[in-house]
């Protein structure tokens, strides 16, 4: 072979060695394929919100969604949701559980979900920029440990038209205002003019009536209509009297937008925007999530003659007794790892990703799914600061007791409530008289509904026991038959042998 040929051969051998070295490096081993079962409401929405992005980063993890919609389907209209929820998890065995904050606490006590602190520490996973109030809430429910994380939370703030406040010389809203404060501030605005041109002290998008306002106040103050421990109505109390009297006075002051039957009932988006006083610059205040800001932007883009105004946002509504806290902040979904999951590492990768910086950065481009728990990516929207949404701490709210109340109760209670409060508004009955009647007749309705629910439950248990008894009887009959045949066979054998 010539020298030139030897050089070519040597060059070829070196190339082959390099290629082999690059492809056969044991450190570049392909990750193992894994499967992951995740609880969520809807499969399509899950992949749109979380799954597609996660799979792009982790192509070796295949996700199967187990839809919680099946819980309602299997439970029936009068079923026990808590039991159906647990049965669903026992049957489907998801690796990643999607639970409420109350359910998380229950499952922690039952040892059904895994604590995440060791995984957070192992992977040096930073939670420093997750909304501290949420981490605090999760730890409170987990005996100072973290058992789940949430990518999003819902919160409310007080949005106001700074131009109207300046024009009418009213002091600007401040952080930590309660509903009582908001109402008093709203009353300082004029009420003159016709319905199409006048301004309002407050508007909440669709209008508001006395019952709705009372419900909003009570929710913010943490006051319930029913004590679910004793199953007693608590409407005829000083707390509720204050709430309803405040709501009644607010509606009579005529500063709250309440179109009644004349409100928006359908039409074009332009007509919808024009029907909203706050969007059109004719209301001083509103409360709400970031959807208000989206509506403001969309209205400005859609309407030719739209007149923009200066928007301000402060933290609230807050509790009147804890002005740095709010019951309008909460968590709709907590992702946790099942304690007996065989795919715990893959489950943790999912939870890490959807609560991480990269996911937050991508999702910060829109506000379609509420507020991001991971801070630093949604500081403003359309030039308006979102700081107010992250200022207050969430107050614990436990609605699990309300699930004990039969649906049949509300069918009788709501008409009673509406009728009596309408009489108060029409000045045909005093508030004290109305609340006394609502509590007395409402208690009768609740007792009856609970009695019917208990009787139905006993009947279902009896039917179940009867079915089991029938099966046992059938099995017993079959056993007796087999025993009889055996005896006959023995007798025949004895006779033959004899």
TrEMBL record:
PANTHER family cross-referenced by the UniProt entry: ARABINOSE-BINDING PROTEIN-RELATED (PTHR43649), SN-GLYCEROL-3-PHOSPHATE-BINDING PERIPLASMIC PROTEIN UGPB (PTHR43649:SF31)
Species of the source: Paenibacillus woosongensis
Biased composition (Low complexity): 463-492
UniProt name for this protein: Extracellular solute-binding protein
Signal peptide: 1-20
Keywords: Signal, Transport
Region (Disordered): 446-498
Ranges of biased composition (kind: Basic and acidic residues): 449-461
Subcellular location: Cell envelope
């Amino acid at each position: 072979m010539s020298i030139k040929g030897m050089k070519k051969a040597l060059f070829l051998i070196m190339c082959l060695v390099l290629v082999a070295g690059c492809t056969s490096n044991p450190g570049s081993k392909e990750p193992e394929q894994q499967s992951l079962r995740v609880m969520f409401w809807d499969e399509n929405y899950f992949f749109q919100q979380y799954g597609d992005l996660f799979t792009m980063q982790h192509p070796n993890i295949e996700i199967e969604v187990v839809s919680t919609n099946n819980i309602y389907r299997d439970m029936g209209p009068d079923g026990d949701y808590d039991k159906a929820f647990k049965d669903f998890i026992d049957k489907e065995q998801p690796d990643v559980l999607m639970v409420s904050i109350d359910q998380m606490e229950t499952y922690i006590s039952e040892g059904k979900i895994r604590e995440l602190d060791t995984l957070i520490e192992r992977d040096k996973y930073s939670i420093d920029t997750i909304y501290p109030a949420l981490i605090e809430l999760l730890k409170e429910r987990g005996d100072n440990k973290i058992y789940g994380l949430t990518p999003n939370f819902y919160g409310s703030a007080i949005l106001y038209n700074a131009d109207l406040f300046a024009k009418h010389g009213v002091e600007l809203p401040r952080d930590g205002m309660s509903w009582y404060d908001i109402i008093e501030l709203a009353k300082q605005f004029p009420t003159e003019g016709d319905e199409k041109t006048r301004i309002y002290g407050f508007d909440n998008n669709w209008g508001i009536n006395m019952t709705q306002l009372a419900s909003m106040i009570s929710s913010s103050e943490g006051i319930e209509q029913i004590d679910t421990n004793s199953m007693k109505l608590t409407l005829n109390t000083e707390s509720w009297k204050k709430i309803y009297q405040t709501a009644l006075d607010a509606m009579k002051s005529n500063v709250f937008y309440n179109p009644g039957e004349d409100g928006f009932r359908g039409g074009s988006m332009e007509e919808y925007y024009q029907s909203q006083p706050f969007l059109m610059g004719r209301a001083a205040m509103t409360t709400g999530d970031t959807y208000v800001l989206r509506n403001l932007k969309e209205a400005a883009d859609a309407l030719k003659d739209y007149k923009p105004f200066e928007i301000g946002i402060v933290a609230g509504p807050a509790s009147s007794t804890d002005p740095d806290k709010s019951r309008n902040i909460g968590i709709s979904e907590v992702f946790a790892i099942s304690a007996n999951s065989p795919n715990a590492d893959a489950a943790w990768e999912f939870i890490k990703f959807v609560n991480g910086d990269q996911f937050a950065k991508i999702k910060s481009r829109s506000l379609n799914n509420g507020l991001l728990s991971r801070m630093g990516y949604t500081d403003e929207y359309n030039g308006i600061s979102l700081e107010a949404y992250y200022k207050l701490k969430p107050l614990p709210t436990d609605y699990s007791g309300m699930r004990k109340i039969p649906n049949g109760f509300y069918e009788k209670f709501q008409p009673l409530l509406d009728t009596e409060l309408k009489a108060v508004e029409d000045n045909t009955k005093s508030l004290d008289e109305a609340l006394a009647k609502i509590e007395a007749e409402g208690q009768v309705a609740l007792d009856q509904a609970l009695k019917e629910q208990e009787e139905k439950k006993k009947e279902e248990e009896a039917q179940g026991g009867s079915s089991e008894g029938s099966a046992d009887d059938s099995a017993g009959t079959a056993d007796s038959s087999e025993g009889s045949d055996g005896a006959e066979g023995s007798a025949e054998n004895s006779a033959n042998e004899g």
